Amino acid sequence: FSLHKHTHTHAKGPAISSIVGNSEEPLPSLSDLHDCEPKLEFDDTELLTPAPLEKDVMVGDFVLADDSDLENEEPSNPLEDDFEELREQTENTQSTLRQNKCDFLGTDKQGRHIFGIYASRFPEKSQLEGFVRQVIKEIEPFVENDYILVYFHQGLKEDNKPSAQFLWNSYKELDRNFRKNLKTLYVVHPTWFIRVIWNFFSPFISDKFRKKLVYISSLDELRQALGLNKLKLPDTICDFDDKLNPSRSRAQQPSHPAAAASAPNGRPTMQFGVPLKFIVMHSPCLNSIPPIVRKCVDSLSITGVIDTEGIFRRSGNHSEIMALKERVNRGEDVDLSNVNVHVIAGLLKSFLRDLAEPLLTFELYDDVTKFLDWPKEERSRNVTQLIREKLPEENYELFKYIVDFLVRVVDCADLNKMTSSNLAIVFGPNFLWSGRNNTSLEEIAPINAFVDFVLQNHKAIYLIDVNQRTVTVD
Protein backbone atom coordinates (compact mmCIF):
# COMPACT_ATOMS: atom_id res chain seq x y z
CA PHE A 1 0.00 0.00 0.00
CA SER A 2 1.11 3.35 -0.87
CA LEU A 3 1.78 6.15 1.48
CA HIS A 4 1.59 4.27 4.71
CA LYS A 5 4.09 1.94 3.39
CA HIS A 6 6.52 4.29 2.07
CA THR A 7 6.19 6.20 5.20
CA HIS A 8 7.52 3.58 7.59
CA THR A 9 9.45 1.33 5.35
CA HIS A 10 12.20 3.67 4.30
CA ALA A 11 13.23 5.18 7.54
CA LYS A 12 16.98 5.04 7.50
CA GLY A 13 19.72 7.28 8.77
CA PRO A 14 22.53 7.97 6.36
CA ALA A 15 24.72 11.07 6.38
CA ILE A 16 23.51 14.61 6.88
CA SER A 17 22.74 17.36 4.39
CA SER A 18 19.91 19.84 4.05
CA ILE A 19 20.44 20.71 0.43
CA VAL A 20 18.75 18.90 -2.42
CA GLY A 21 21.21 18.41 -5.22
CA ASN A 22 21.05 16.67 -8.55
CA SER A 23 17.54 15.36 -9.06
CA GLU A 24 18.77 12.06 -10.38
CA GLU A 25 20.98 11.28 -7.40
CA PRO A 26 19.68 9.92 -4.09
CA LEU A 27 19.29 12.49 -1.37
CA PRO A 28 21.28 12.17 1.84
CA SER A 29 19.76 12.25 5.28
CA LEU A 30 19.45 15.48 7.14
CA SER A 31 20.09 16.52 10.70
CA ASP A 32 20.15 13.90 13.43
CA LEU A 33 20.01 16.42 16.24
CA HIS A 34 16.62 15.51 17.67
CA ASP A 35 16.68 11.76 17.90
CA CYS A 36 14.43 11.21 20.88
CA GLU A 37 11.55 8.85 21.26
CA PRO A 38 8.50 9.91 23.31
CA LYS A 39 6.72 7.16 25.18
CA LEU A 40 3.66 7.74 23.07
CA GLU A 41 5.58 6.28 20.16
CA PHE A 42 5.85 2.57 19.42
CA ASP A 43 7.34 0.20 21.91
CA ASP A 44 9.91 -2.20 20.50
CA THR A 45 8.46 -5.52 21.66
CA GLU A 46 7.00 -6.61 18.36
CA LEU A 47 10.02 -5.32 16.48
CA LEU A 48 12.51 -7.36 18.45
CA THR A 49 10.42 -10.52 18.08
CA PRO A 50 8.77 -10.05 14.68
CA ALA A 51 6.69 -12.54 12.80
CA PRO A 52 8.93 -14.35 10.32
CA LEU A 53 9.09 -12.83 6.86
CA GLU A 54 8.38 -15.14 3.98
CA LYS A 55 11.33 -15.62 1.64
CA ASP A 56 9.18 -16.31 -1.38
CA VAL A 57 8.27 -12.63 -1.58
CA MET A 58 11.83 -11.40 -1.85
CA VAL A 59 11.54 -10.15 -5.40
CA GLY A 60 11.49 -6.79 -7.16
CA ASP A 61 12.69 -4.20 -4.67
CA PHE A 62 13.63 -6.88 -2.13
CA VAL A 63 16.82 -8.88 -1.89
CA LEU A 64 17.58 -11.82 0.37
CA ALA A 65 19.76 -10.92 3.31
CA ASP A 66 20.44 -11.88 6.89
CA ASP A 67 18.59 -10.04 9.62
CA SER A 68 20.53 -7.14 11.06
CA ASP A 69 20.95 -6.63 14.76
CA LEU A 70 18.54 -4.18 16.29
CA GLU A 71 19.36 -1.88 19.13
CA ASN A 72 17.20 -2.57 22.14
CA GLU A 73 18.13 0.31 24.33
CA GLU A 74 15.78 3.27 24.07
CA PRO A 75 17.31 6.70 24.79
CA SER A 76 15.89 8.97 27.42
CA ASN A 77 13.18 11.37 26.37
CA PRO A 78 13.65 14.97 27.47
CA LEU A 79 10.53 16.08 25.57
CA GLU A 80 8.12 13.61 27.12
CA ASP A 81 6.00 16.22 28.89
CA ASP A 82 5.77 18.40 25.81
CA PHE A 83 4.69 15.43 23.74
CA GLU A 84 1.94 14.59 26.23
CA GLU A 85 0.59 18.08 25.75
CA LEU A 86 0.71 17.71 21.98
CA ARG A 87 -1.12 14.41 22.24
CA GLU A 88 -4.07 16.15 23.91
CA GLN A 89 -4.14 18.75 21.12
CA THR A 90 -4.03 16.01 18.52
CA GLU A 91 -6.92 14.13 20.14
CA ASN A 92 -9.03 17.29 20.21
CA THR A 93 -8.65 17.78 16.47
CA GLN A 94 -8.61 14.13 15.43
CA SER A 95 -12.21 14.02 14.17
CA THR A 96 -11.70 16.89 11.73
CA LEU A 97 -8.28 15.77 10.56
CA ARG A 98 -9.23 12.21 9.74
CA GLN A 99 -11.57 13.25 6.99
CA ASN A 100 -8.48 14.05 4.88
CA LYS A 101 -6.22 11.03 4.62
CA CYS A 102 -3.34 12.98 3.07
CA ASP A 103 -2.59 16.43 1.69
CA PHE A 104 -1.26 17.72 -1.60
CA LEU A 105 1.57 20.04 -0.56
CA GLY A 106 2.41 21.42 -3.99
CA THR A 107 5.24 20.66 -6.41
CA ASP A 108 8.92 20.55 -5.60
CA LYS A 109 11.84 22.25 -7.36
CA GLN A 110 11.52 19.91 -10.31
CA GLY A 111 7.74 20.09 -10.60
CA ARG A 112 7.05 16.74 -8.93
CA HIS A 113 3.87 16.34 -6.92
CA ILE A 114 4.37 16.32 -3.15
CA PHE A 115 1.99 14.43 -0.86
CA GLY A 116 1.94 14.66 2.91
CA ILE A 117 0.73 12.02 5.31
CA TYR A 118 0.47 12.55 9.05
CA ALA A 119 0.84 10.02 11.84
CA SER A 120 -1.57 12.15 13.86
CA ARG A 121 -4.31 11.28 11.36
CA PHE A 122 -3.88 7.53 11.58
CA PRO A 123 -7.05 5.82 12.83
CA GLU A 124 -7.05 3.09 15.47
CA LYS A 125 -5.33 -0.16 14.56
CA SER A 126 -8.49 -1.97 13.48
CA GLN A 127 -9.10 0.67 10.79
CA LEU A 128 -5.54 1.05 9.51
CA GLU A 129 -5.97 -1.27 6.55
CA GLY A 130 -8.93 0.71 5.24
CA PHE A 131 -7.05 3.95 5.87
CA VAL A 132 -4.10 2.80 3.76
CA ARG A 133 -6.39 1.66 0.97
CA GLN A 134 -8.03 5.08 0.93
CA VAL A 135 -4.67 6.84 0.78
CA ILE A 136 -3.68 4.68 -2.17
CA LYS A 137 -6.94 5.49 -3.91
CA GLU A 138 -6.43 9.22 -3.40
CA ILE A 139 -2.96 9.42 -4.91
CA GLU A 140 -3.15 6.59 -7.42
CA PRO A 141 -3.95 8.94 -10.36
CA PHE A 142 -0.69 10.81 -9.68
CA VAL A 143 1.86 8.02 -9.26
CA GLU A 144 2.20 7.43 -12.99
CA ASN A 145 4.53 10.44 -12.71
CA ASP A 146 7.51 11.02 -10.42
CA TYR A 147 6.31 12.06 -6.98
CA ILE A 148 7.51 12.92 -3.48
CA LEU A 149 6.13 11.67 -0.19
CA VAL A 150 6.51 13.49 3.14
CA TYR A 151 5.67 11.58 6.32
CA PHE A 152 5.16 13.64 9.49
CA HIS A 153 5.90 11.38 12.44
CA GLN A 154 4.63 13.71 15.14
CA GLY A 155 1.41 12.55 16.79
CA LEU A 156 1.80 8.77 16.54
CA LYS A 157 0.07 7.16 19.53
CA GLU A 158 -0.15 3.75 21.11
CA ASP A 159 -3.68 3.11 19.88
CA ASN A 160 -2.90 3.75 16.21
CA LYS A 161 0.54 2.19 15.88
CA PRO A 162 0.79 -0.34 13.02
CA SER A 163 2.62 -3.59 13.64
CA ALA A 164 5.83 -4.45 11.85
CA GLN A 165 4.06 -7.28 10.05
CA PHE A 166 1.34 -4.87 8.86
CA LEU A 167 3.96 -2.53 7.42
CA TRP A 168 5.72 -5.41 5.70
CA ASN A 169 2.52 -6.82 4.22
CA SER A 170 1.45 -3.36 3.05
CA TYR A 171 4.77 -2.77 1.33
CA LYS A 172 4.62 -6.13 -0.45
CA GLU A 173 1.27 -5.21 -1.98
CA LEU A 174 2.39 -1.86 -3.36
CA ASP A 175 1.88 -1.45 -7.08
CA ARG A 176 5.13 -1.12 -9.02
CA ASN A 177 4.43 2.51 -9.95
CA PHE A 178 4.21 3.48 -6.28
CA ARG A 179 7.70 2.14 -5.64
CA LYS A 180 9.35 3.02 -8.94
CA ASN A 181 8.08 6.59 -9.30
CA LEU A 182 8.57 7.56 -5.66
CA LYS A 183 11.67 9.73 -5.91
CA THR A 184 12.13 10.70 -2.28
CA LEU A 185 10.53 9.82 1.03
CA TYR A 186 11.06 12.56 3.59
CA VAL A 187 10.55 11.50 7.22
CA VAL A 188 9.97 14.62 9.31
CA HIS A 189 10.87 14.60 13.01
CA PRO A 190 12.23 11.03 13.02
CA THR A 191 12.54 9.22 16.35
CA TRP A 192 14.20 6.13 17.73
CA PHE A 193 11.29 4.02 16.52
CA ILE A 194 11.87 5.08 12.92
CA ARG A 195 15.46 3.91 13.11
CA VAL A 196 14.49 0.61 14.69
CA ILE A 197 11.84 -0.14 12.08
CA TRP A 198 14.30 0.80 9.34
CA ASN A 199 16.94 -1.58 10.70
CA PHE A 200 14.28 -4.24 10.81
CA PHE A 201 13.40 -3.95 7.12
CA SER A 202 16.70 -2.71 5.71
CA PRO A 203 18.24 -6.14 4.95
CA PHE A 204 15.31 -7.05 2.72
CA ILE A 205 15.12 -3.86 0.64
CA SER A 206 17.23 -3.07 -2.40
CA ASP A 207 19.90 -0.37 -2.21
CA LYS A 208 18.14 1.65 -4.90
CA PHE A 209 14.92 1.83 -2.96
CA ARG A 210 16.66 2.28 0.38
CA LYS A 211 18.42 5.44 -0.81
CA LYS A 212 15.13 7.22 -1.36
CA LEU A 213 14.75 7.96 2.35
CA VAL A 214 15.79 11.33 3.78
CA TYR A 215 15.52 12.28 7.45
CA ILE A 216 14.28 15.81 8.16
CA SER A 217 14.53 17.13 11.71
CA SER A 218 13.05 20.60 11.21
CA LEU A 219 10.46 22.27 9.01
CA ASP A 220 13.11 24.73 7.82
CA GLU A 221 15.06 21.81 6.38
CA LEU A 222 11.91 20.51 4.73
CA ARG A 223 11.14 23.86 3.12
CA GLN A 224 14.70 24.10 1.83
CA ALA A 225 14.66 20.55 0.48
CA LEU A 226 11.34 21.00 -1.32
CA GLY A 227 11.87 24.59 -2.40
CA LEU A 228 8.59 25.55 -0.72
CA ASN A 229 8.95 28.42 1.70
CA LYS A 230 5.18 28.62 2.08
CA LEU A 231 4.08 25.33 3.55
CA LYS A 232 0.73 25.13 5.32
CA LEU A 233 0.83 22.37 7.92
CA PRO A 234 -1.30 21.41 10.95
CA ASP A 235 -0.62 23.60 13.97
CA THR A 236 0.37 20.60 16.10
CA ILE A 237 3.28 19.85 13.77
CA CYS A 238 4.40 23.48 13.68
CA ASP A 239 4.16 23.73 17.47
CA PHE A 240 6.15 20.54 17.88
CA ASP A 241 8.80 21.85 15.49
CA ASP A 242 9.02 25.08 17.48
CA LYS A 243 9.68 23.06 20.63
CA LEU A 244 12.40 21.03 18.93
CA ASN A 245 13.90 24.09 17.22
CA PRO A 246 13.24 27.01 19.58
CA SER A 247 15.75 29.29 17.88
CA ARG A 248 13.65 29.41 14.71
CA SER A 249 10.07 30.60 15.11
CA ARG A 250 7.42 30.70 12.45
CA ALA A 251 7.50 34.49 12.49
CA GLN A 252 11.09 34.33 11.22
CA GLN A 253 10.32 32.23 8.19
CA PRO A 254 11.48 33.77 4.91
CA SER A 255 8.91 35.13 2.55
CA HIS A 256 8.06 33.35 -0.66
CA PRO A 257 10.88 33.80 -3.19
CA ALA A 258 8.40 35.03 -5.78
CA ALA A 259 7.48 37.93 -3.51
CA ALA A 260 11.12 38.99 -3.24
CA ALA A 261 11.72 38.52 -6.92
CA SER A 262 8.75 40.70 -7.81
CA ALA A 263 10.15 43.65 -5.86
CA PRO A 264 10.69 46.87 -7.85
CA ASN A 265 14.50 46.45 -7.66
CA GLY A 266 14.39 43.08 -9.46
CA ARG A 267 16.62 42.89 -12.54
CA PRO A 268 14.67 43.79 -15.70
CA THR A 269 16.09 40.69 -17.38
CA MET A 270 14.41 38.32 -14.90
CA GLN A 271 11.91 35.81 -16.29
CA PHE A 272 11.76 33.35 -13.37
CA GLY A 273 10.12 34.21 -10.07
CA VAL A 274 8.49 37.48 -11.18
CA PRO A 275 4.95 38.43 -12.25
CA LEU A 276 4.03 37.79 -15.86
CA LYS A 277 3.22 41.46 -16.36
CA PHE A 278 6.77 42.32 -15.21
CA ILE A 279 8.21 40.03 -17.91
CA VAL A 280 5.96 41.47 -20.61
CA MET A 281 7.01 45.00 -19.65
CA HIS A 282 10.76 44.34 -19.58
CA SER A 283 11.43 41.54 -22.10
CA PRO A 284 10.86 41.25 -25.86
CA CYS A 285 7.62 39.29 -25.64
CA LEU A 286 5.87 38.67 -28.92
CA ASN A 287 2.12 38.39 -28.16
CA SER A 288 2.90 38.33 -24.42
CA ILE A 289 4.91 35.10 -24.68
CA PRO A 290 8.08 35.29 -22.52
CA PRO A 291 11.22 34.52 -24.57
CA ILE A 292 12.24 31.52 -22.46
CA VAL A 293 8.79 29.95 -22.81
CA ARG A 294 8.94 30.32 -26.58
CA LYS A 295 12.42 28.77 -26.62
CA CYS A 296 11.28 25.81 -24.53
CA VAL A 297 8.22 25.19 -26.70
CA ASP A 298 10.19 25.52 -29.94
CA SER A 299 12.82 23.07 -28.67
CA LEU A 300 10.23 20.57 -27.44
CA SER A 301 8.12 20.75 -30.62
CA ILE A 302 10.78 19.14 -32.81
CA THR A 303 9.98 15.69 -34.19
CA GLY A 304 11.90 13.16 -32.16
CA VAL A 305 11.59 15.34 -29.06
CA ILE A 306 7.87 15.95 -28.72
CA ASP A 307 7.26 12.22 -29.04
CA THR A 308 9.75 11.31 -26.28
CA GLU A 309 8.12 8.79 -23.98
CA GLY A 310 7.31 10.33 -20.62
CA ILE A 311 7.87 13.93 -21.73
CA PHE A 312 6.86 16.17 -18.78
CA ARG A 313 6.37 13.04 -16.67
CA ARG A 314 10.02 12.45 -15.83
CA SER A 315 11.99 15.03 -13.90
CA GLY A 316 15.10 16.56 -15.40
CA ASN A 317 18.48 17.15 -13.81
CA HIS A 318 17.84 19.74 -11.11
CA SER A 319 21.27 21.36 -11.17
CA GLU A 320 21.04 21.88 -14.94
CA ILE A 321 17.59 23.44 -14.61
CA MET A 322 18.78 25.79 -11.86
CA ALA A 323 21.84 26.81 -13.89
CA LEU A 324 19.67 27.63 -16.91
CA LYS A 325 17.27 29.67 -14.78
CA GLU A 326 20.12 31.71 -13.34
CA ARG A 327 21.53 32.38 -16.80
CA VAL A 328 18.13 33.47 -18.12
CA ASN A 329 17.59 35.80 -15.17
CA ARG A 330 21.00 37.38 -15.82
CA GLY A 331 19.84 38.17 -19.33
CA GLU A 332 22.03 35.61 -21.12
CA ASP A 333 20.89 34.09 -24.38
CA VAL A 334 20.67 30.35 -23.65
CA ASP A 335 20.94 27.70 -26.36
CA LEU A 336 18.69 24.70 -25.73
CA SER A 337 19.60 22.76 -28.86
CA ASN A 338 21.83 20.31 -27.00
CA VAL A 339 19.94 20.26 -23.69
CA ASN A 340 18.22 17.08 -22.50
CA VAL A 341 14.49 16.98 -23.29
CA HIS A 342 13.52 16.40 -19.65
CA VAL A 343 15.62 19.38 -18.56
CA ILE A 344 13.84 21.63 -21.07
CA ALA A 345 10.46 20.26 -19.98
CA GLY A 346 11.44 20.87 -16.37
CA LEU A 347 12.48 24.42 -17.23
CA LEU A 348 9.04 25.12 -18.70
CA LYS A 349 7.27 23.67 -15.66
CA SER A 350 9.58 25.64 -13.40
CA PHE A 351 8.71 28.88 -15.19
CA LEU A 352 5.00 28.33 -14.50
CA ARG A 353 5.55 27.24 -10.91
CA ASP A 354 7.83 30.22 -10.16
CA LEU A 355 5.38 32.88 -11.35
CA ALA A 356 4.52 35.29 -8.54
CA GLU A 357 0.85 34.55 -9.30
CA PRO A 358 -0.37 31.41 -11.08
CA LEU A 359 -1.08 31.72 -14.79
CA LEU A 360 -4.80 31.12 -14.20
CA THR A 361 -4.68 33.74 -11.39
CA PHE A 362 -5.78 33.61 -7.77
CA GLU A 363 -9.07 35.21 -8.81
CA LEU A 364 -10.13 32.12 -10.76
CA TYR A 365 -9.21 29.64 -8.04
CA ASP A 366 -12.61 29.36 -6.37
CA ASP A 367 -14.38 29.09 -9.73
CA VAL A 368 -12.07 26.45 -11.17
CA THR A 369 -12.19 24.29 -8.05
CA LYS A 370 -15.97 24.06 -8.54
CA PHE A 371 -15.55 22.63 -12.05
CA LEU A 372 -16.75 19.13 -11.17
CA ASP A 373 -19.84 20.56 -9.50
CA TRP A 374 -20.99 22.25 -12.70
CA PRO A 375 -23.62 20.40 -14.74
CA LYS A 376 -21.93 18.89 -17.79
CA GLU A 377 -24.06 20.91 -20.16
CA GLU A 378 -22.81 24.16 -18.56
CA ARG A 379 -19.09 23.36 -18.45
CA SER A 380 -18.23 24.54 -21.93
CA ARG A 381 -19.93 27.87 -21.42
CA ASN A 382 -18.42 28.39 -17.96
CA VAL A 383 -14.89 27.46 -18.97
CA THR A 384 -15.04 29.66 -22.06
CA GLN A 385 -16.37 32.55 -20.03
CA LEU A 386 -13.68 32.25 -17.37
CA ILE A 387 -10.82 32.08 -19.85
CA ARG A 388 -12.04 34.75 -22.26
CA GLU A 389 -13.48 37.27 -19.84
CA LYS A 390 -11.63 36.91 -16.53
CA LEU A 391 -8.02 36.26 -17.50
CA PRO A 392 -5.79 39.32 -18.01
CA GLU A 393 -4.72 39.64 -21.64
CA GLU A 394 -1.12 38.49 -21.09
CA ASN A 395 -2.35 35.47 -19.09
CA TYR A 396 -4.90 34.63 -21.77
CA GLU A 397 -2.29 34.74 -24.54
CA LEU A 398 0.29 32.66 -22.66
CA PHE A 399 -2.25 30.09 -21.51
CA LYS A 400 -3.52 29.73 -25.07
CA TYR A 401 0.03 29.36 -26.37
CA ILE A 402 0.92 26.61 -23.91
CA VAL A 403 -2.41 24.82 -24.43
CA ASP A 404 -1.85 24.81 -28.19
CA PHE A 405 1.55 23.21 -27.61
CA LEU A 406 0.19 20.63 -25.15
CA VAL A 407 -2.47 19.66 -27.67
CA ARG A 408 0.35 18.82 -30.08
CA VAL A 409 1.95 16.73 -27.35
CA VAL A 410 -1.34 14.86 -26.95
CA ASP A 411 -1.41 14.25 -30.72
CA CYS A 412 1.78 12.19 -30.23
CA ALA A 413 0.36 10.21 -27.31
CA ASP A 414 0.85 6.91 -29.13
CA LEU A 415 4.59 7.46 -28.77
CA ASN A 416 5.07 9.72 -25.75
CA LYS A 417 2.27 8.09 -23.68
CA MET A 418 1.04 11.52 -22.58
CA THR A 419 -2.72 11.81 -22.91
CA SER A 420 -4.67 14.95 -22.09
CA SER A 421 -5.46 13.59 -18.63
CA ASN A 422 -1.77 12.76 -18.01
CA LEU A 423 -0.73 16.28 -19.00
CA ALA A 424 -3.52 17.77 -16.88
CA ILE A 425 -2.15 15.96 -13.83
CA VAL A 426 1.30 17.41 -14.52
CA PHE A 427 0.25 20.96 -15.44
CA GLY A 428 -2.84 21.47 -13.28
CA PRO A 429 -0.89 22.36 -10.10
CA ASN A 430 1.49 24.52 -12.17
CA PHE A 431 -1.33 26.48 -13.81
CA LEU A 432 -3.25 27.19 -10.61
CA TRP A 433 -2.74 27.10 -6.85
CA SER A 434 -4.29 28.76 -3.85
CA GLY A 435 -3.01 32.05 -2.52
CA ARG A 436 -4.30 31.19 0.95
CA ASN A 437 -3.48 27.57 1.86
CA ASN A 438 -2.05 24.40 0.40
CA THR A 439 -4.21 23.04 -2.38
CA SER A 440 -5.97 19.95 -1.04
CA LEU A 441 -6.39 16.72 -2.96
CA GLU A 442 -10.09 17.51 -3.16
CA GLU A 443 -9.23 20.76 -4.96
CA ILE A 444 -6.56 19.25 -7.19
CA ALA A 445 -9.09 16.92 -8.83
CA PRO A 446 -11.30 19.72 -10.29
CA ILE A 447 -8.23 21.77 -11.29
CA ASN A 448 -6.85 18.85 -13.27
CA ALA A 449 -10.29 18.11 -14.74
CA PHE A 450 -10.57 21.75 -15.79
CA VAL A 451 -7.21 21.60 -17.60
CA ASP A 452 -8.11 18.27 -19.19
CA PHE A 453 -11.37 19.78 -20.43
CA VAL A 454 -9.51 22.74 -21.96
CA LEU A 455 -7.09 20.41 -23.76
CA GLN A 456 -9.93 18.37 -25.19
CA ASN A 457 -12.06 21.38 -26.18
CA HIS A 458 -9.43 23.93 -27.10
CA LYS A 459 -10.83 24.58 -30.58
CA ALA A 460 -14.19 25.71 -29.26
CA ILE A 461 -12.67 27.76 -26.44
CA TYR A 462 -10.09 29.55 -28.64
CA LEU A 463 -12.21 29.91 -31.75
CA ILE A 464 -11.62 33.65 -31.85
CA ASP A 465 -8.55 35.84 -31.50
CA VAL A 466 -7.75 37.59 -28.23
CA ASN A 467 -8.51 40.97 -29.79
CA GLN A 468 -12.06 39.82 -30.45
CA ARG A 469 -12.73 37.92 -27.26
CA THR A 470 -15.43 40.23 -25.91
CA VAL A 471 -18.32 38.03 -26.87
CA THR A 472 -21.75 37.15 -25.67
CA VAL A 473 -21.81 33.64 -24.22
CA ASP A 474 -25.21 32.00 -24.32
From TrEMBL:
Rho-GAP domain boundaries: 274-462
Bias-annotated ranges (Low complexity): 251-264
GO cellular component, one term: cytoplasm
Region (Disordered) residue spans: 1-33, 67-95, 244-266
Bias-annotated ranges (Basic residues): 1-11
GO BP field: negative regulation of endocytic recycling; small GTPase-mediated signal transduction
Biased composition (Acidic residues): 67-85
CRAL-TRIO domain: residues covered: 103-245
PROSITE patterns given in the database record: CRAL_TRIO (PS50191), RHOGAP (PS50238)
InterPro entries found in the cross-reference section: CRAL-TRIO_dom, CRAL-TRIO_dom_sf, Rho_GTPase_activation_prot, RhoGAP_dom
MF (Gene Ontology): GTPase activator activity
Name under which the protein is recorded: Rho GTPase-activating protein 68F
Source organism (scientific name): Drosophila rubida
Classification lineage: Eukaryota, Metazoa, Ecdysozoa, Arthropoda, Hexapoda
